[in-house]
Amino acid sequence: MRAPLALLVVLAACAGPPQQEGALADLHDAADLPLLEGARAALRTDLPPGEDEEVLRTLEALEGALDVAFPFLPPPAAPPRTVVLGEPARFALHAREHGLGNRPAGAFLCGRGEVFALHEPAPLPDDVAVPMEPLIRPLAAAVFRRRLVAGMGADLPETWLEEGLAMVFVEVVAPDRAGGRLRVKARERLLDAYLPLYLGGPPALATTVATVGPEEKRRRGSRAMAWAACRFLLDDAERTPLLVTALRRAARALERPAEWEAARARLEALEPEFEAWLRRAVQEEVLVALAAAPTPVDRWEAAAALRLLANVDLDPDLPDDARVRAVAATRRMLDEDPGPPRFLAQFEPDLARVRAARSKLQAMSRVHAAARKELERRSQGYGHPAVEAARQGLGPALQRALDAGG
Question: Strand runs (DSSP E) across 110-236, as ranges?
Answer without folding.
Answer: 115-118
